[in-house]
Write a structure and sequence with these properties.
The complex is a heterotrimer of chains A (about 300), B (about 425) and C (about 325).
Chain A: H1 2-13, H2 30-40, H3 42-59, H4 96-132, H5 134-148, H6 152-161, H7 169-195, H8 198-205, H9 210-246, H10 258-265, H11 274-301
Helix pairs in contact in A: 2-11, 3-4, 3-11, 4-5, 4-7, 4-9, 4-11, 5-7, 6-7, 7-9, 8-9, 9-10, 9-11, 10-11
Chain B: H1 9-24, E1 36-51, E2 57-73, E3 77-81, H2 88-95, E4 103-108, E5 111-112, H3 118-125, E6 128-131, H4 145-155, H5 162-175, H6 192-204, E7 210-214, H7 222-239, E8 242-247, H8 250-256, E9 259-264, E10 267-273, H9 274-279, H10 284-292, H11 300-303, H12 334-338, E11 359-360, H13 387-391
Parallel strand pairs in B: 3-8, 3-9, 6-7, 7-8
Antiparallel strand pairs in B: 1-2, 1-4, 4-5, 9-10, 10-11
Chain C: E1 3-14, E2 17-29, E3 34-38, H1 45-53, E4 61-70, E5 73-74, H2 80-89, E6 91-94, H3 98-101, H4 108-120, H5 124-137, H6 143-146, H7 156-168, E7 174-178, H8 186-203, E8 206-211, H9 214-220, E9 223-228, E10 231-237, H10 238-243, H11 248-256, H12 295-299, E11 305-308, E12 311-313, H13 318-323
Parallel strand pairs in C: 3-8, 3-9, 6-7, 7-8
Antiparallel strand pairs in C: 1-2, 1-4, 4-5, 9-10, 10-12, 11-12
Helix pairs in contact in C: 4-5, 7-8
Classes of the chains: A mainly alpha (about 300), B alpha/beta (about 425), C alpha/beta (about 325).
Protein name (chain B): ABC transporter ATP-binding protein
Family (chain B): Belongs to the ABC transporter superfamily.
GO molecular function, one term (chain B): ATP binding
């Protein structure tokens, strides 16, 4: 089996032509190869279009929703679709369409900020542990084991129930706190793999400093798995925010969140299913888009295919 | 062959001067004809075997290298051969300071470099460079060829001012036989042999005096191997490089080396000139190793005595006492178990002028010719008519008239 | 004839295009005969063997045409389970990397015994006895005690012996060994090669030995087929090919390896690189690297010329190549 692979890869190794007789091809790095693959991948195209749309409406929700999500009229509670209010009204008489549109902002903010935090913290800690090894590595590995033992939802109920704030920051902080070990573990592993390559040894034999080896040789060859994990995690963080908000410990009113709206709507699921359908649908599409993006990125960066 | 390398003209002459006397020198321990530029003394590398995760407990020691000494003269090639696990790669890594020896000294021009650090180490590194085995993992896939070969100049900016670097890199590409226009390409656009050339160019960038090459051609296709070996040969003549050439392929080592050391389980068991080792081996392991090399000539089947060793190499975590080869040796006796044989000229050969008189770590050293003398085997592309008759003499017959055989009879008192 | 490969074509569909790995290969092996298939990486030597064994990854691989006759029956026209029965029982394969070819979570005894349980319907107890017997046969010391050990507990040479034992278990009539000793040290290489040759003689099997090493082949092969860019460029009985190669590629290869008995002098090097299988040069694939190439070599693919009895060369200038030695 592996022999077939070996022969296969030999084909790809051979460059355009021997000793300059081949056609002049443009130099392309592994990143640009990956980008070329991504551009042709329909999964990537669809998911990134969805994500682009989400990002735009979370920055400028008023582009497509001209009402105020907090301007509610109890008199219209639970009413269905009507002109100017395509998704109807929720239990408080707020416009479901407007709230669904405005909900994107918090979801995307939590997803992006939490992912950035997790990637930075986990990537740096895990990367350093992998690079230097020794006692710091052992301690970090034990810490990550401990964190893996904490049930996320239970931790959220305990940790976030003491917080009184309607901003997104406590939720982001919580996700970063519990999420970094996952990325740290991936970063550690891929740094260790990259570190063992002869080109790192070669740089060391040349007298390169640790910083140089890390930034020039190890990091660029170790980031791919971290990027993949981070992209997929972004989707799950968005759904985690919704879960926590649903349980009443994530975002709190008056903040607008799909989780809060799903929670509120779940009481009226028989009379007014539209109240649940729209925020839940938006959440599902968003999470799916990020996970699909992660998949596409992984396919493009998978070193086994190069 | 290539454009101008006038700047390196001097180095070439020096190299040739240093190389010339070596060919005739009696190579055993210290090479005659000038100070050695590298002296390795009693080099030891032990790796602790540990158990436990946070608190590590040592449960044993892997004796990867256990007392290795040799000299390297300017411009010469020392080949180190041995099977996997014999410690030859660890020696290479210690020479270029990628591994810290447990004990022993590596002296570069008389100065021990094993404990150097910081600026002093960086200065020494300029002069001792390495070429790696695997052309696929030794080049950073995220960097262009120009960046890879130019990196030495970024680390040692004093070697070349910024403005000149690109031209220097292109010169180097030319020197190793690659098109200088490839400077912006990435490693995966090259074949194995071409990548190895890039690795060699990187090793040359700082104008080193010594290149440690760890199995530089064993990952390459047969037809490409010869190209790279010839390149290494040419560069040595051109720049006066000294090579420590580490390989498991005895034929290639013979081709490229002036002197050869044979390693077994962390020690050098026999060392001498190319002729001494290949035509007059006295250590049973060397003899077995040489006799096991498949010769690309079916006619050789009848002319060669094959020594087939039994069993495998013992674990370096638990090497045999006394002589380490004794567990696989057909000559082993009680003495071999009790007494560690020293690497020195065996007593029987001490007073002779015979080429068998070179360092060999065996209590029962005796000469045995396992490689048929040159010309006995047929070469394609050469006249074959007369070799037929010559071959009938068999390998036992002495063809090498100058030195004569050195059986035990030659130990007459002087 | 035990095995006959006729005009076999295999191609790989990669993202860069179609790589023509095997382009019309013919060879045959009789019982008790050793055929060495010699070539560099990308020559198609392993791919041909995988096609014969029926373990080619399809896709990306695709058999473009030809016949593989095993005891007179075309393997390519057989049903899948019919073929599976032949594999293992009638023909077996030995790989280069024994460690990755053995299952790390099963003991060696279990893996050897499994062959007898599955194919011969033996009880596990009997199968274990058989396993010990096999390990004895490939001269693994203390076989009885070691039958319960796992692959990683054996050295490289021992693992390769276990692979050989496994291939021999059901006494197949054909064994394909793909670089069986490349990963081993020279002293161990000699042991393993001797063992393989001895068992082959004993069981009167056909053996296809795939290798890049001209030295290994010289000692055991009866005849040699040299492959280049998916074609056989020369085939001959072993003695003759070393004495007088009839193809410039074979000649170049023989001259380019350093010799144990010779010192110094510049090695002969075949210039250039093996061809990219996506763009095989027109005409003779070796022509850009060949010192004898003429106009005709760039035009048409040379057929196999009969040089002597049982000897063929795919070179327009085979006569000149033979003479100019």
């Amino acid at each position: 089996m592996d022999l077939a692979l070996e022969e296969g890869t030999t084909l790809e190794r051979t460059p355009g032509g021997p000793e300059g007789t081949g056609p002049a091809e443009k130099p392309h790095s592994l990143w640009s190869d990956a980008w070329r693959d991504l551009r042709r991948n329909p999964v990537f195209l669809i998911s990134s279009l969805v994500i682009l749309f989400l990002v735009i409406i979370s920055i400028w929700p008023s582009l497509i929703a001209d009402q105020d999500p907090l301007n509610c009229n109890l008199g219209k509670a639970q009413e269905g679709s009507q002109p100017g209010h395509p998704f109807g009204f929720d239990g408080q008489g707020c416009d479901v369409y407007t709230r669904t549109v405005y909900g994107a902002r918090n979801s995307v903010t939590v997803g992006v900020c939490a992912t950035l935090g997790v990637t930075l913290l986990g990537g740096v800690l895990g990367g350093l542990a992998g690079f230097f090894g020794g006692w710091w590595d052992s301690v970090l590995s034990r810490i990550t084991d401990v964190f893996f033992g904490i049930p996320v939802v239970l931790g959220g109920l305990v940790f976030l129930s003491v917080v009184v704030s309607s901003t997104v920051w406590p939720v982001i902080g919580f996700i970063v706190l519990l999420g970094w070990p996952q990325v740290a573990r991936i970063a550690r592993g891929s740094v260790i793999t990259a570190k063992q390559n002869d080109y790192v040894q070669a740089a060391r034999a040349l007298g390169a400093s640790n910083t140089r080896m890390m930034l020039r040789h190890v990091a660029p060859n170790a980031v791919a798995p971290v990027i993949v994990v981070a992209t997929i995690a972004l989707g799950t963080y968005i759904s985690l925010e919704a879960t926590l908000s649903f349980l009443g410990v994530g975002l709190k009113p008056p903040a607008v969140s799909w989780g809060i709206d799903i929670s509120a709507a779940s009481q009226y699921i028989r009379n007014a299913p539209h109240m649940l359908l729209w925020p839940a649908g938006a959440l599902a599409v968003t999470v799916l888009a990020f996970i699909m993006l992660g998949d596409a990125v992984r396919d493009a960066l998978d070193p086994k295919l190069r | 062959m290539h454009a101008d390398h006038s700047g390196r003209e001097e180095a070439r002459e020096e190299g040739e001067k240093a190389r010339a006397p070596l060919a005739t020198s009696r190579a055993g321990s210290a090479a005659a004809g000038g100070e050695p530029i590298l002296e390795v003394r009693d080099l030891v590398k032990h790796y602790p075997l540990t158990q436990g995760i946070v608190i590590k407990k040592q449960i044993g020691t892997v004796k990867a290298v256990d007392g290795v000494s040799f000299d390297l003269a300017a411009g010469e090639t020392l080949g180190i051969v041995g099977e996997s696990g014999c410690g030859k790669s660890t020696v290479a890594k210690m020479l270029v300071h990628l591994e810290q020896p447990t004990a022993g000294a590596i002296k570069y021009k008389g100065e021990d470099i094993t404990r150097l650090s910081g600026r002093a180490l960086k200065a020494v590194r300029r002069n001792i460079q390495m070429v790696f085995q695997d052309p696929y993992t030794s080049l950073n896939p995220r960097m262009t060829v120009g960046d890879i070969i130019g990196e030495p100049y970024e680390i040692h900016p004093e070697v070349a001012p910024k403005g000149e670097r690109r031209r220097k890199v292109q010169d180097l590409l030319d020197v190793v036989g690659l098109n200088p226009e490839y400077i912006n390409r990435y490693p995966h656009q090259f074949s194995g042999g071409q990548r190895q050339r890039i690795g060699i160019a990187r090793g040359l960038a700082l104008n080193p005096e010594i290149i440690v090459a760890d199995e530089p051609v064993s990952a390459l296709d047969v037809s490409v191997q010869a190209q790279v070996v010839n390149l290494l040969d040419r560069l040595q003549a051109e720049f006066g490089l000294a090579y420590v050439f580490i390989a498991h392929d005895l034929s290639i080592v013979r081709h490229i080396s002036d002197r050869v050391g044979v390693m077994y389980l962390g020690r050098i068991v026999e060392i001498g000139s190319d002729e001494q080792i290949y035509e007059h081996p006295t250590h049973p392991y060397t003899q077995a190793l040489l006799s096991a090399v498949p010769v690309p000539d079916p006619a050789a089947r009848e002319h060669r005595e094959r020594i087939i060793l039994h069993g495998d190499v013992p674990s370096p975590a638990n090497p045999p006492s006394g002589c380490r080869f004794r567990t696989r040796c057909w000559k082993a006796q009680e003495r071999c178990e009790l007494e560690v044989p020293l690497l020195a000229v065996p007593a029987v050969f001490r007073l002779t002028e015979s080429p068998a008189g070179h360092d060999s770590a065996c209590h029962f050293a005796e000469e045995k010719q396992v490689v048929p003398p040159e010309g006995l085997l047929e070469m394609p592309g050469e006249t074959a008519g007369e070799t037929e008759t010559e071959a009938e003499g068999g390998p036992s017959q002495d063809v090498d008239g100058e030195n004569g055989p050195a059986p035990s009879g030659s130990t007459r008192a002087g | 004839m035990l095995l006959e490969v006729r005009d076999l074509h295999v191609e790989f569909h990669t993202r860069e295009g179609v790589a023509k790995a095997v382009n019309g290969v013919n060879y045959s092996v009789a019982e008790g005969e050793t055929l060495a298939v010699l070539g560099e990486s990308g020559s198609g030597k392993s791919v041909t063997a995988q096609a014969v064994m029926g373990i080619l990854d399809m896709p990306p691989g695709k058999i473009g045409g030809g016949e593989i006759l095993f005891k007179g029956r075309d393997l390519l026209k057989m049903k899948k389970d019919e073929r599976r029965k032949i594999r293992g029982q009638e023909m077996a394969m030995i790989f280069q990397d024994a460690l990755s070819s053995l299952n790390p979570v099963l003991s060696v005894g279990e893996q050897l015994g499994e062959m007898f349980v599955v194919h011969r319907g033996m009880s596990h107890k009997d199968a274990k006895l058989k396993a010990v017997e096999l390990m004895d046969r490939v001269r693994i010391p203390a076989a009885k005690e070691r039958v319960g050990n796992y692959p990683h507990q054996f050295s490289g040479g021992m693992r390769q012996r276990i692979m050989i034992a496994m291939a021999m278990a059901l006494e197949p009539s054909l064994i394909i060994a793909d670089e069986p000793t490349t990963a081993l040290d020279v002293t161990v290489q000699a042991q393993v090669m001797d063992l393989l040759a001895e068992l082959q003689r004993e069981l009167n099997m056909g053996l296809i030995l795939i290798t890049h090493d001209l030295g290994v082949v010289a000692d055991v092969a009866d005849k040699i087929a040299v492959m280049y860019a998916g074609r056989i460029v020369e085939s001959a009985p072993v003695h003759e090919i070393y004495r007088a190669p009839a193809h410039p590629y074979t000649k170049g290869l023989l001259r380019s390896i350093p010799r144990l008995d010779q010192k110094g002098r510049e090695l002969y090097a075949i210039k250039g690189l093996p061809p990219n299988l996506l763009h095989i040069p027109p005409g003779c694939a070796f022509n850009p690297r060949c010192p004898m190439a003429q106009e005709i070599c760039r035009g048409e693919v040379p057929p196999l010329f009969e040089v002597a009895e049982h000897r063929e060369s795919a070179c327009y200038f085979w006569k000149e190549t033979l003479d100019a030695r």
